[in-house]
Write a structure and sequence with these properties.
Shape: globular
Strand content: under 5%
Distance between the termini: 97 Å
Largest sheet: none
Number of helices: 11
Structural class: mainly alpha
Length: about 325
């Protein structure tokens, strides 16, 4: 494996460890905050005074920074699918720290993610070394990628202008289609920015080129739009539905965008490409299984809680009936 790919791999895995841990720290902080004030879900901000929540935010920032840098060294086909490892980290830590039991099917999902990630790593392509942001601009303006961008923006326009008002509140694919398409453009922009910063730190200043600032502007606009519609999706639909669908769509479109722009698979034989696709599909399968088992466990918990409440109510009713009978049969009543 190329040296840059190894650096990108280490950064991507480290990013997943930090991000996966951040979910647990933030959730633990939210639980503590809820015990001392109004829950965040009900408009409370007590969590802002909770150190654990801030520790989670700090680890998430470190993880996202590591992920950003990873794109400067390794192709998106290697970095992006490894984001699934953060789900494994959070699931395992939740099992031990939050006592959220990981089922056998959940363990299978974790194993599938690991196996798929290993396959991707072993067959990851070696990225062509770029020496200036102008070379990246040439890649971004090639006809094939311009067609991809035009198609992506056209679909986004149709989704925003026509389909969002029509069925945005009832079809999860509308919001997720928008943020996934914009997310694919976000990643290639971030990769361009990362390479520009890397070259600048190595002594070749890329900040003097207007293309660098163009990529920064595009990246900022895409991130804002992506997060806006992801929040809409999470606010409207169940997170257990949003998360796996978004991961599948976002990862697939990102790999496609990167493969077209940066020619990630150029020079690879059909066997290596097929292996990478197989690894990717394996990771997707593991991710869907993990989210499905979590949704089932949450539903089971709700049902059990409801049954417990009904049982308690029934016992209370029986107790009330018994008290009533005791009163009627009290000998004092007849005196």
């Amino acid at each position: 494996m190329a040296e840059d790919n190894v650096k990108g791999l280490v950064l991507a895995v480290g990013s997943s460890l930090f991000i996966g841990t951040s979910f647990i720290l933030k959730k633990k902080g939210l639980h503590r905050a809820a015990a001392n004030g109004t829950r965040a879900g009900y408009g409370g901000y007590t969590y802002l005074r909770e150190p654990l929540w801030w520790a989670g935010m700090t680890t998430m920032f470190i993880g996202e920074a590591a992920n950003f840098v990873a794109y400067a060294f390794a192709p998106a086909v290697l970095v992006t699918p490894l984001g699934a490892l953060s789900i494994i980290v959070s699931a395992v830590l939740a099992n031990f720290i939050l006592k959220e039991r990981l089922s056998k099917l959940g363990i299978l999902g974790c194993l599938l993610c690991i196996v798929g990630s290993v396959i991707i790593v072993l067959h990851a392509p070696q990225e062509e070394s770029l020496t200036s942001v102008q070379e990246i601009w040439d890649l971004a303006t090639q006809p094939a990628f311009l067609i991809f961008v035009a198609a992506a923006l056209s679909i986004v326009a149709v989704l925003v202008v026509y389909l969002e008002p029509l069925c945005g509140q009832s079809n999860v694919l509308v919001y997720l289609g928008i943020c996934s398409l914009m997310g694919s453009l976000t990643v290639v922009s971030i990769k361009a920015i990362g390479i520009a910063i890397k070259l600048t730190l190595e002594g070749t200043n890329q900040l003097t080129f207007p293309q660098t600032w163009f990529f920064m502007t595009v990246g900022a606009v895409c991130v804002i739009m992506q997060l806006n519609y992801l929040n809409k999706a999470l606010d409207t639909f169940n997170a257990a539905i949003v998360s796996p669908i978004y991961y599948v769509m976002f990862t697939t479109l990102t790999i496609a965008a990167s493969a077209i722009m940066f020619k990630d698979w150029s020079g690879q034989d059909a066997s290596s490409i097929a292996s990478e696709i197989s690894g990717f599909v394996t990771v997707l399968g593991g991710t869907v299984i993990l989210h499905t088992t979590r949704e089932q466990e949450q539903a089971g918990t709700s049902i059990n809680a409801g049954a417990a409440n009904r049982h308690t109510s029934g016992e209370d009713q029986k107790s009330g009936d018994k008290e009533h009978l005791i009163t009627l049969h009290n000998t004092d009543y007849f005196e």
